[in-house]
Write a structure and sequence with these properties.
The protein is of the alpha/beta class. It has a single domain (about 5-215, about 280-310), classed as Alpha-Beta Barrel (TIM Barrel). The chain is about 40% helix and about 15% strand. The protein is built from 13 helices and ten strands. The strands form two sheets. An eight-stranded parallel barrel has the order 3-4-5-6-7-8-9-10, surrounded by six helices. It has a two-stranded antiparallel ribbon with strand order 1-2. α2 (about 60-70) links the parallel β4 (about 45-50) and β5 (about 80-85). α1 runs parallel beside α12, α3 packs parallel to α4 and α4 (about 130-140) packs across α5 (about 155-170). The structure holds NADP nicotinamide-adenine-dinucleotide phosphate (NAP). NADP nicotinamide-adenine-dinucleotide phosphate (NAP) binds near residues 22, 178, 207 and 216. The site of NADP nicotinamide-adenine-dinucleotide phosphate has 29 residues, from β10 and α12.
Length: about 325
């Protein structure tokens, strides 16, 4: 496993990180989720991403317990969690000072830790003045409960605005952004998010780099999804129907199959090709992957350190054609 600085610090993160949405605390047996987390640690993965709302808080509980039972000391792994969305059954949400204070304490308790390494705003909150949010996050860092702060899926103009505010007031600057980014979903390259992050010293931890498993090539056009895949799982399938709906078509699955010979010629697996492609960008510090089984996280970890030549990047674009979302 190789490691990269996350923006201008203070964290250094593994190139592949482990995500807990849909696979920890729900939809996967607890023992399997714990085995995936322990496998990730054995593979040198140091960054673990969760959110207060994942499985209504259960993802944080299972992740925290698994990390504590791993035999590693607390400084051998990093915990990233998020705030913004409601945590069922309670309806309150957002990034007000009161909400951040309340949700932070609850996340710390569920995770069973006294510090969160990276506290991320899951989405931008249009209802709360940005200076209230940034001051509350600064207070969280000064209290010692949080080491660094980040955001997820904020528009570029809000990243600029947050950076300007923290500079003006001497508050803790944001150090990371978490956008969706993959061979099939290239928006951060073109919507100004990567540029804004570069300008203000934020690193990117990108999610969905396997497009919910589609870029592993296991879905074949004209065939039903393989048994035990997310697309075949009636409980987890909602994610393929919502966030992943654009990846769920014979046209996309056929385009992804055209990547198989490119990966094969290079002696790479499909997860290696897809993950090396996102990690080719200097703006990307880490790619967060989910795993339903320990073998999957091993397949993803094997992408760290793989580089792709320019002519390979061109062949990939030709193979995918117009299914890419820009
Ligand atoms: N900030 C945000 O708004 C946001 C949004 C979404 C996700 N995230 C973060 O990103 C993480 C990853 O998201 P994700 O789970 O949607 O995306 P993903 O990593 O693209 O997909 C993970 C799924 O792909 C399949 N898979 C992975 N490796 C495989 C392999 N080697 N062979 C075959 N299938 C494989 C598995 O599903 P099956 O085996 O079930 O098919 C696995 O659960 C989340 O856990 C979360 O931490 C953040």
């Amino acid at each position: 496993m190789q490691y990269r600085p996350l923006g201008r610090g203070p964290l250094t993160v593994s190139e592949i990180s482990f995500g807990t949405w849909l696979t920890v605390g729900a939809h996967t047996e607890r023992a399997t989720a714990v085995a995936c987390i322990h496998a990730a640690l054995d593979l040198g993965i140091t960054l673990f991403d969760t959110a207060n709302m994942y499985a209504a808080g259960e993802a944080e509980r299972v992740l925290g317990a698994a990390l504590r039972s791993s035999g590693r000391s607390r400084d051998q792994y990093l915990i990233a969690t998020k705030v913004f969305n409601p945590v069922p059954p309670e309806p309150d949400k957002g990034l007000s000072a009161a909400q951040i204070a309340k949700q932070l304490d609850r996340s710390l308790e569920r995770l069973g830790t006294d510090v969160i390494d990276l506290y991320q705003c899951h989405r931008y909150d249009k209802e709360t003045p940005l200076d209230e949010t940034m001051e509350a996050l600064d207070r969280a860092v000064r209290s010692g409960k949080v080491r660094s702060i980040g955001l997820s899926e904020w528009p570029a103009e809000k990243i600029h605005a947050a950076a300007e505010l923290t500079t003006e007031h001497g508050w803790t600057p944001m150090t990371s952004s978490q956008p969706q980014y993959s061979l099939l979903w290239r928006k951060p390259e073109e919507n100004g998010v990567f540029d804004a992050c570069c300008e203000h010293g934020l690193g990117n931890i990108v999610y969905g780099p396997l497009a919910q498993g589609v870029l592993t090539g296991k879905y074949k056009p004209g065939e039903p999804p393989p048994a035990e895949s997310r697309a075949a799982n009636p409980e987890a399938n909602f994610a393929m129907e919502t966030l992943g709906r654009r990846f769920r078509s014979d046209e996309v699955w056929a385009a992804v199959q055209r990547l198989q010979p490119i990966a094969g010629d290079l002696g790479l697996t499909m997860p290696q090709l897809a993950l090396a492609w996102v990690l080719r960008r200097a703006e990307v510090a880490s790619a967060i992957v989910g795993a339903s089984r320990p073998e999957q996280i091993a397949a993803s970890a094997a992408a760290s350190g793989v580089t792709l030549a320019e002519d390979v990047l061109t062949s990939i674009d030709v193979a995918l054609g117009d299914v890419v979302l820009r």
